[in-house]
Model the fold of this input.
Amino acid sequence: MEKNDKIIRIKNLIASYDGNTVLDGIDLDIKKGEIFVILGSSGGGKTTLLKHIIGLLKPVHGTIEVFGKDILSMEHYEFDTILKKVGVLFQGGALINSMEVWENVAVPLEQHSDLSLDVIKEVVKYKLGLVKLGHAYSLLPSELSGGMKKRVALARAIALDPEILFFDEPSAGLDPITAAELDNLILNLKEKMGITLVVVTHELESIKRIADRIVYLQKGKNIFCGTIEEAKKAGIDEVDRFFGWA
Amino acid sequence: MSDQSSKYRIVVDGSFTKFDIGNMKKKIENQKRGDSDIIIDLSGANKFDSLSVAFCSKLESDRSVRLIKSPELESEIADFNQTAGSDKAETPEPDFTEKLVLAFYGLFYHIRDFIILAADIFYFSFVSVISSKGRKKGSVYEQINLIGNNAVPIVFLLSFLIGLILSLQSAAQLRQFGANIFLVDLIVIAMITEMGPMITAVIVAGRSGSAIAAEISTMKITEELDALKVMALNPLKYVVAPKMLAMTLSLPALTIMANLVGIFGGFIIAVLYLDLSPNIFFDRAVDVMSLNFWGQSILKSVLFSWLIVIIGSHYGFRVKGGAEGVGKATTASVVASIFAVIMTDAFLSLIFYFEF
Done:
């Protein structure tokens, strides 16, 4: 697969909640190895778009191709194969509260690898080391701060060395220093592991630091897709106001 | 708020804010009691807040009050109404027929979802017996410990007391007819076929049915179920199947214990109150106990165990809202489980009574 191959393709995606159209004809391509940021105003459909790509929601119309396969027309077991190649970091971390940190990170390894428990524990330590949380190995999620929870969730998301990582508002609710550290982690993952990253955020600093390309959603419509430089030149009022260029 | 009110007139100059509303309301109430027309003169007022503007806006529609507004208030009310009404969804209140149809649809979908969930839980629990892939290692054992082992003391104590009380009340009556020996029949049949399975199921529904609903609903709200899905794990297999398997094993085991302990309660009364010898009690009990009664008891407890897990999961997966939603789901699941257990018990008892 070439560097610029499209790893995710979305065509004419229409989605609705209780009769209200949330995504209105989204067309989108995400290239392999890039950091792609989905942004827009609150209620614009960012998280809904993400949930459709990872199969948590079903659209009314349209196609979503991940790794060149239409995920909407495939069987459950086929989609499970796709899911094993992606990782998702939820807004609140979504750690299983009854399990210790290491058990949380071990869940995908226990379920989808043939490694013995000893080796799994070593892998867990390595992944926790990557997010600088080796010391939290035996803690419960309730004993962690918001930023630590997100980092543990990141360790769990990268446990199986995914090819695509999805982030739902990684910096939301974090102080600027922790947010910057998380951004550095994201950039490291891209550099070291060549992962494609799809990030939903509206943190300006974060977007400027990490984004290769952005898509701007307004009321469920894709009003801009391209690099930040292209966005500057495009002269779209809403986008200019978002970045403070207007 | 400065106030120079005449008999029918309340005059406000300067500021009229949220702190003045209470006072104003009292004055209006007093005037209304006197059956007089009220004029509220706000023409001299020039400082408002959103609460006082909302209050004045409401006063406009009160026929017994005449409001004299300053230009500032006029524009504040117009602004308030425009903003408050700008995002208002135009959903007319449904009439009685529409409400009835909606309630019917709601019930239909509720039952449909329950049946689909029940079928899925049976399927994934069965698959889970064949292959442990997709569920946490050691989770069935962990659940047996939580649902079964931890419930032993409470089930033991309550079934003993039920057996004791049931026997005591019956013994007083039987004694009058010299039918002391039939206490053994009564307590053995009542405990094994009715009280044992039902009391155990009610206790377990309260302990573990509520825990299942609370756990699943919290997992749904905190996106833990979504996290499992995107890790290619089925929540029904990962979370519910171990509980289903553990409950299917634990509840019959607890029921057998409850039956025996309840009968032991009867034994105490028979020996101490009715002066039956232990040997006579034992011989008679063995004669009365038939495999048929034990079969009924175990069949009931297995069905109850399935009902408790499916109802707990059903309410857990349907949760809406935050902490309050979890509370509602938990309460609803316990009420529905106990109701379902007693209804099923009554239904099965009727069938067994006439068929066997």
